[in-house]
Input
Amino acid sequence: MTIVYSPSYDLHNMKFHVENKKRTDVIMEALRILDLKIVEPRMASPSDILRVHSQAHMDYVKGFAERGGATLTMTLT
Output
């Protein structure tokens, strides 16, 4: 099993919520003890996105972003 993790995930640290750095630290330590493969995330390619979403959905999100509704950090071609 491969775990995708970045220390930047800890920037979403909600002190009194289940989503917090302390919880992440405990989980990551357990995963390291299990000797699981841990990799840094990478930008998803259009083919990656199409493995889990339809072309219509990807086109919709791209159009929404192009109309100023959101910001995408990659170029969809």
In short: The chain has two domains: 2-39, 43-77.
